[in-house]
Recover the amino acids of this structure.
């Protein structure tokens, strides 16, 4: 593989891994709240979490620009207080990928939390466990397969992220040009069918691998009839 | 008095009242299915909140709606043997037994792990996962787990249901020993009149 291809692959992996690691605790918290708590506005929260799944990705990217761009409500504050800029660099690509991965990750984790018998938590409480300890010793370990499956699925989704990334983080070689963006760029160049095919095969292998791994994890823990998708 | 209980319960659409006091070491709670026997145990353990009333066990107020007392389940220290055993599926038998023991106040224990293993004949099961246990084995481990959490009282929900006769007889003998050797108030929910006649000092009928 060429040096340019390695740059694309390593950037894609870096962006996806960071996106998943940062989104993981957030998604698990949201998944737990949606699965276990009953409060007014729960439906709205659930809908908001699913928004990136149903919106055109370009719109999600535009919303990120409005919020996190240098002139945006949160982005302006980040820049003035910490000197952090998210747009047009790889952290921005990771933010876009994380937001797009969030609904899928929350979904996988919510299902696995709902599969944990709440009466086991009650049993732990009668044995002397505080709510936090019962969560850490019962709910968390028993929902671990869902966390792993959610992470895998989020990773695959991040790897394929295009619309929100190109809108929010732009298409800058070596900085935000991940695998899908690189394929798109090559497609603009006449006579680059071979380069496109090579990148496409890499994308297929990486994405399929992540998806198969998450299916395997879910089946192993929740029976052969359970599915991620 | 071991148990002084007067509570108004509402579970889903079913409302009922439980009102009794007992100075028998082992009190049996009987009544038709679905009348609220398990819900009553859950309320005493702190897993369900009564609409109103008062729960006092062995002189300690666990719940009193009039004065706003509502101890959390982990503070009530009930040794609760659930009807479905309810062992933690991801932990081996030894870890299930140790779960409450580790959280019990130092020096409060009423039995040691060795005594429990011998008494309940579960020494050979310690390395097994709950999914590999028979119903009777799981029940015995659940009783052991409840005894090891240094309970102040025991709640037993149909401990002998769906066991074959030999196993039921063994457990029955064991419960007689627990009743006579430990100074723990025990509340037993049962459908079997033979079991109730043999064990209970007082019978409370719900419904």
């Amino acid at each position: 593989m060429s040096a340019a291809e390695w740059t694309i692959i390593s950037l894609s992996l870096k962006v996806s891994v960071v996106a998943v690691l940062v989104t993981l605790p957030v998604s698990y918290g949201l998944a737990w709240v949606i699965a276990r708590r009953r409060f007014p506005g729960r439906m709205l929260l659930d809908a908001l979490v699913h928004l990136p799944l149903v919106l055109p990705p370009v719109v999600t990217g535009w919303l990120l620009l409005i919020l996190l761009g240098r002139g945006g409500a949160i982005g302006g504050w980040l820049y003035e207080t910490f000197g952090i800029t998210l747009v047009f660099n790889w952290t921005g690509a990771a933010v876009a990928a994380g937001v797009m991965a969030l609904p899928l990750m929350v979904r996988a984790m919510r299902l696995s939390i709902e599969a944990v018998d709440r009466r086991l938590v009650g049993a732990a409480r009668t044995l002397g466990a505080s709510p936090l300890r019962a969560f850490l010793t019962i709910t968390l370990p028993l929902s671990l397969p869902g966390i792993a499956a959610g992470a895998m699925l989020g990773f695959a989704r991040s790897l394929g992220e295009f619309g929100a990334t190109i809108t929010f983080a732009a298409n800058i070689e070596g900085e935000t040009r991940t695998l899908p963006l690189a394929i798109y760029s090559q497609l603009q160049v006449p006579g680059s069918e071979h380069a496109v095919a090579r990148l496409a095969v890499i994308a297929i292998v990486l994405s399929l691998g992540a998806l198969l791994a998450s299916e395997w994890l879910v089946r192993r823990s929740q029976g052969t009839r359970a599915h991620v998708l | 008095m071991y148990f002084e209980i007067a509570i108004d319960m509402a579970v889903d659409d079913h409302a009922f009242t439980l009102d009794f006091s007992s100075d028998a070491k082992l009190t049996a709670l009987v009544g038709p299915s679905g009348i609220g026997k398990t819900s009553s145990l859950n309320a005493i353990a702190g897993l369900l909140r009564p609409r109103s009333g008062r729960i006092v066990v062995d002189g300690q107020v666990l719940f009193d709606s009039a004065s706003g007392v509502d101890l959390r389940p982990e503070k009530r220290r009930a040794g609760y043997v659930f009807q479905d055993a309810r062992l933690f599926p991801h932990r081996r038998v030894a870890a299930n037994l140790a779960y409450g023991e580790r959280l019990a106040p130092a020096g409060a224990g009423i039995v040691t792990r060795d005594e429990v293993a011998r008494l309940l004949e579960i020494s050979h099961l310690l390395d097994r996962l709950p999914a590999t246990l028979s119903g009777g084995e799981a029940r015995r481990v659940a009783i052991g787990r409840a005894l090891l959490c240094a309970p102040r009282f025991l709640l037993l929900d149909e401990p002998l249901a769906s066991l074959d006769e030999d196993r039921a007889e063994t457990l029955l003998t064991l419960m007689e020993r627990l009743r006579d050797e430990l100074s723990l108030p025990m509340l037993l929910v049962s459908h079997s009149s033979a079991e109730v006649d043999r064990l209970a000092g007082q019978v409370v009928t719900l419904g």
Notes: Chain A is about 75% helix and 0% strand.
